[in-house]
């Protein structure tokens, strides 16, 4: 079946990115389909959409739409900025997620509720969860309709990129003693640290997937291309920033990482790259060392100063025979809210990787396109899970850890990604700390590489992972459904891919030789030239 996405330009782009990241095999169109996702609607369209559902169509509204609220219950004459949604059931490894206005409250009538708004986490048996639905769906006439009573697109955008008024040049810029303006501060007063272990933006996408499958039944279980090569469920991504380290110690660091069995992306400052020859860099690339720019144009650079810095770096990378496609800011310095994105796009950048919060964790561990106010850019962000300097030293307001404790905790975090959250683990390991520093992280880095290899978790640098991610996006897999059987056929770029299907569909349980995903209620199966999956009644 096809999925139609309708609404205004940037919102439909954003929704399209969500469905692409989820890997849903259904063809995506810009018109009305049997399953239609409305990112927003125009005044007066509500009645036509209600008729569409009544006559057998299926519709999901990604924000509360006043013209259709009456189908779900009676709207309250006021609203409240509830900060959380509490999800019902135990299908996912999370129960609370943050949400952001605009929120509309209703007294529900004849609906299936997926989650309700909450004031806070409950304590001492004092309930803090409301009865007002945050996500609900229902049968209406011959079709089904679902609604998010908060704006899921805006919520995911804020969880991934923060808010502009905490950026440099806006209303509430960060007040640091040295004057630096950091990307981290875009999430100021956004992220609830109690939820740092939950990849919240990704979790909202899984809720959307669940609603889509509820409304797509019985026509399709909505198979989707899995995030990783079969049979993997996470990947360890290793990288670090040069920060003025000399060539001898940089090469010592690369020798250590490759000797331990790792791949690594080295983000290099301009002056740190200059001493290396083209041939030396090419040899290191052959040994799984990838290179990107570690940009630094000053503590509070203007857009022009940042652009000039990127232009100088681009010329140097070209001279050294390196692709100029990947970057990370020194000290997380970021110009404006979307100004930095525009600069990176204009200078040919395709990948960025920054820290959004001091706590260990990500809001979205998978790659996502960065957005400006006019729409999507060419730049994909892959969030940093943790940084060794933030972990080890008293610089973040969090209690510092020793490297041996950090290894124990990170090994557990990698296991959680493998078994529950299915996000890449993307920590920063600065080379200075595992070459010639009193706070030696060699045991930590070698230990996490050993833990990954012992658990058959792939270790990649950023270039290797994005090569896979691009190939995944180009995979051509045909899905045909006949009765209770799903036939999958890999046509192009399908080698090594896997398909995720719900464990249950139309009251039947999947029968196949696959791998169970405890965190999503799905089964992944490898794609061969032809793969058949059946759903059978349980005995």
Q: Descriptors for this entry?
A:
Rossmann fold, alpha/beta, nine-stranded mixed β-sheet, 31 strands, seven-stranded mixed β-sheet, TIM Barrel, 13 helices, 539 residues
User: Which word captures the global form?
Assistant: globular
CATH superfamily of the largest domain: Glycoside hydrolase/deacetylase
CATH class of the largest domain reads Alpha Beta
Quick check: average pLDDT?
A: 95
The count of β-strands is 31
Domain count? 3
Low-confidence blocks of residues: none
Please state the structural category.
alpha/beta
CATH level-3 fold name of the largest domain: TIM Barrel
Straight-line N-to-C gap:
30 Å
Helix content: 25-40%
The Cα radius of gyration reads 24 Å
- Number of distinct helices: 13
Q: How many strands, which pairing sense, and closed or not: the largest β-sheet?
A: 9 strands, mixed
Topology at a glance:
Layout: E1 3-6, H1 9-22, E2 28-29, E3 35-38, H2 46-54, E4 58-61, E5 73-75, E6 84-87, E7 96-98, E8 106-108, E9 112-118, E10 129-140, E11 143-148, H3 152-161, H4 200-216, E12 224-225, E13 236-237, E14 239-241, H5 247-259, E15 264-268, H6 270-273, H7 278-286, E16 289-295, H8 303-319, E17 326-329, H9 339-346, E18 351-352, E19 368-372, E20 375-381, E21 386-387, H10 388-392, H11 403-421, E22 427-428, H12 442-454, E23 459-460, H13 462-474, E24 476-482, E25 485-492, E26 498-502, E27 504-505, E28 508-511, E29 515-517, E30 522-526, E31 530-536
Parallel strand pairs: 1-2, 1-3, 3-4, 4-11, 13-23, 14-15, 15-16, 16-17, 17-18, 18-20, 21-22
Antiparallel strand pairs: 5-8, 6-7, 6-9, 9-10, 10-11, 12-26, 19-20, 24-25, 25-31, 26-30, 27-28, 28-31, 29-30
Helix pairs in contact: 3-4, 8-9, 11-12
């Amino acid at each position: 079946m096809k999925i139609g996405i309708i609404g205004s330009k940037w919102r439909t782009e954003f929704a399209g990115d969500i469905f692409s990241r989820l890997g849903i095999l259904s063809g995506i169109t810009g018109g009305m389909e049997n399953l239609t996702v409305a990112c927003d609607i125009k005044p007066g369209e509500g009645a036509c959409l209600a008729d569409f559902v009544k006559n057998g169509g299926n519709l999901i509204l990604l924000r509360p739409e006043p013209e259709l609220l009456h189908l779900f219950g009676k709207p309250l004459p006021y609203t409240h900025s509830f900060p959380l949604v509490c999800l019902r059931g135990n299908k996912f490894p999370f129960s609370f997620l943050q949400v952001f206005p605009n929120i509309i409250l209703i007294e529900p009538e004849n609906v299936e509720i997926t989650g309700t708004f909450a004031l806070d986490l409950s304590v001492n048996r004092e309930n803090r969860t409301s009865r007002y639905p945050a996500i609900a769906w229902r049968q209406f006439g011959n079709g089904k309709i679902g609604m998010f009573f908060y704006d899921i697109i805006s919520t995911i955008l804020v969880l991934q990129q923060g808010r502009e008024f905490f950026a440099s040049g806006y209303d509430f810029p960060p007040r640091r003693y040295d004057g630096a303006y950091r990307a981290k501060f875009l999430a100021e007063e956004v992220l609830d640290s109690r939820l740092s272990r939950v990849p919240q933006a990704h979790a909202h996408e899984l809720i959307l997937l669940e609603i889509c499958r509820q409304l797509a039944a019985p026509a399709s279980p909505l198979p989707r291309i899995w995030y990783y090569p079969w049979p993997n469920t996470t990947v360890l991504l290793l990288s670090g920033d040069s920060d003025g380290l000399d060539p001898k110690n940089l090469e010592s660091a690369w020798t250590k990482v490759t000797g331990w069995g790792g791949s690594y992306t080295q983000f290099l400052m301009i002056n740190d790259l200059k001493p290396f020859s083209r041939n030396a860099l090419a040899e290191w690339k052959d040994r799984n060392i990838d290179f990107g720019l570690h940009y630094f144009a000053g503590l509070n650079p203007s857009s022009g100063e940042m652009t000039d810095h990127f232009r100088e770096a681009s010329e140097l990378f070209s001279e050294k025979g390196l692709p100029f496609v990947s970057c990370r800011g020194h000290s997380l310095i970021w110009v404006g809210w979307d100004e930095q994105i525009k600069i990176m796009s204009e200078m040919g950048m395709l990948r960025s990787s920054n820290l959004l919060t001091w706590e260990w964790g990500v809001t979205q561990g998978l790659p996502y396109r960065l957005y400006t106010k006019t729409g999507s850019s060419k730049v994909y962000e892959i969030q940093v899970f943790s940084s060794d300097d933030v972990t080890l030293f008293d610089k973040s307001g969090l209690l510092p850890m020793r490297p041996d404790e950090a290894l124990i905790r990170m090994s557990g975090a990698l296991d959680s990604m493998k078994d529950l959250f299915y996000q890449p683990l993307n920590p920063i390991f600065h080379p200075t700390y595992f070459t010639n520093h009193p706070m030696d992280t060699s045991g930590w880095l070698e230990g996490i590489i050993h833990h990954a290899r012992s658990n058959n978790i792939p270790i990649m640098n950023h270039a290797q992972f994005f090569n896979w991610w691009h190939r995944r996006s180009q995979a051509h897999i045909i899905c045909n459904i006949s009765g209770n059987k799903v036939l999958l056929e890999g046509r192009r770029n399908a080698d090594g891919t896997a398909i995720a299907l719900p464990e249950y569909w139309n009251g039947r349980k999947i029968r196949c030789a696959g791998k169970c995903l405890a965190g999503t209620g799905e089964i992944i199966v490898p794609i061969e030239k032809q793969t058949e999956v059946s759903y059978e009644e349980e005995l």
